[in-house]
Design goal:
Aspartate Aminotransferase, domain 2; Aspartate Aminotransferase, domain 1; alpha/beta; 7-stranded mixed beta sheet
Length: 480
């Protein structure tokens, strides 16, 4: 129980808490960071409330004796509340979603937002965000237009598909396509392709949500076209192929090809669909072959789905291309309004796709493609450049060295590909690697690195040139 003396002290301290107006005035005198009177008052009330709660909970408030030196105690409380209000005002202006420097060496890092956008995509997004746009207005006819028509035309041109549409992510695209093509009917898929990607996205779960019935065929490591044929019944509505983009089954394996599946579909009158996931439009030299969207369309697959923010290098989107009979049916479905893409993502996606009209330019203009193809020699020079920017003292204190390392494609793409790279490794003299990694994450901007063998690894592959100076400034500060 709280003693009477403690309760009396508590009451005296509570009475000494400053008024809202008093602290608001002091904040204004200090500049107040351009905040309105309402914002100032709200921050001060919250700060006073926090201190009041602490006084009610603490038996030892850590303040001067309120009886012997009330003036000093009151001044201390004012200063505490003022500092708290300033912190609240500052935190109110800080965004939770913020830019980070990716030093992990993982190009399509799902936790870090996957594909960074190109200059053209960011410019297009910014232009559309600033005001109004012709999102659903035909400027030539002066009447209501179709959302995403320009993007759809580009997708058809780049992939050879008859029709296209875009929704908010690939999981939505897969579910929507299966729902449209096989609602309440059977969908045959290989056991070796019942994939799960990040966030517990599983093909069987998506099928259940779409209303379709999953029919597994073949075995985990071997599924022949005869297995699909033998699984067909009068209730079969769709033959599904799912690209195992985030894992590989190697060794004693076999799978039905796209061409074989397409031929079986034409023979039986059953449509075919492929979830490509990663969504590559171009081959990347030096990396394992990744099936392109065009290859699936040319093989005769009726509907192909893939992501916008993986190997395509654009914003988050789910893309559907294929035969017009199915795509147009999806466009007219009530779900389309629920799943449709917003104007900002559409602007960024269109700019990304336009870069692919010139494949050579796309490889240099789209950050994902550029980072995947950066040579070891260039990465080594970048690592050496970072060391020079840090200077001898910082390099010595932080134990900085240039070392070979390897990264990953990430984003559930090319799981067996290792990206040979160079990194600046840090073995600090006065702290652990874990401590330094934590400080990097809490820097401005945050730096996300990885730890290997008690060293902080700063892989240069995903660090932009304009981020090099920022990173060097942060490291120099840590070396003081």
């Amino acid at each position: 129980m709280t003693s009477p003396d403690a309760r009396n002290l508590q009451s005296r301290l509570l009475r000494l808490l400053p008024s809202v107006d008093e602290i608001v005035t002091r904040l204004k005198n200090d500049g107040a960071n351009g905040s309105s009177d309402t914002a100032l008052s709200d921050a001060v009330r919250k700060a006073i409330g926090i201190k009041r709660q602490l006084l009610l909970e603490q038996t030892n408030p850590g303040l001067p004796d309120a009886t012997e030196n009330a003036s000093l105690c009151e001044q201390t409380l004012r200063d505490i509340v003022l500092d708290e209000a300033k912190q609240i005002l500052s935190s109110n202006k800080q965004l939770g979603l913020k830019k980070v420097i990716n030093a992990t060496g993982i190009v399509l890092h799902t936790n870090l937002g996957r594909a960074p956008l190109s200059d053209a995509a960011r410019s297009a997004l910014n232009d559309v965000a600033q005001g109004y746009s012709n999102l659903e207005f035909d400027l030539n006819l002066g009447q209501r237009g179709s959302r995403g028509s320009d993007v759809e035309s580009l997708l058809c041109r780049l992939t050879g598909a008859e029709a296209a549409l875009v929704v908010n992510n690939n999981a939505a695209a897969v579910m929507f396509a299966i729902h449209t093509m096989a609602n309440a009917a059977e969908v045959i898929v290989s056991r070796g392709e019942l994939v799960e990607i990040g966030g517990s996205f599983r093909i069987p779960d998506i099928m259940r949500q779409s209303g379709a019935k999953l029919v597994e065929t073949g075995t985990t490591n071997k599924t022949r076209i005869s297995d699909y044929r033998n699984a067909i019944t009068q209730d079969t509505a769709l033959l599904l192929k799912a690209h195992t983009s985030n894992y590989r089954i190697i060794g004693f394996t076999e799978e039905a090809s796209r061409g074989e599946l397409s031929e079986l579909g034409r023979e039986t009158g059953i449509p075919t669909m492929e979830d490509l996931g990663s969504g590559s439009l171009l081959h990347t030299d030096g990396l394992p072959h990744e099936p392109t969207v065009t290859e699936s369309i040319q093989a005769g697959i009726d509907v192909v789905t893939f992501s916008g923010d993986k190997l395509l290098g654009g914003p988050q989107a789910g893309i559907v291309v294929g035969k017009a009979v199915w795509v147009e049916k999806m466009k007219k479905h009530p779900l389309m309004r629920i799943l449709r893409l917003d104007k900002l993502a559409l602007a960024a996606l269109e700019a990304t796709l336009r870069a692919y009209l010139d494949p050579d330019a796309a490889r240099t203009q789209i950050p994902t493609l550029q980072m995947l193809s950066t040579t070891r020699e260039k990465l080594k020079k970048q690592a050496e450049s970072l060391m020079n920017l840090m200077g001898e003292n910082a390099c010595s204190v932080l134990g900085a060295r240039v070392e070979e390392t390897s990264g990953m494609v990430g984003g559930g793409a090319m799981p067996l590909a290792e990206l040979d790279s160079f990194a600046v490794t840090l073995s600090p003299q006065n702290s652990s690697a874990e401590s330094l990694e934590t400080r990097l994450r809490n820097a401005t901007p945050p730096v996300v690195a990885r730890i290997h063998e008690d060293k902080v690894i700063l892989d240069l592959r995903c660090i932009r040139e304009d981020e090099m100076n920022q990173l060097a400034v942060i490291l120099n500060e840590f070396a003081k």
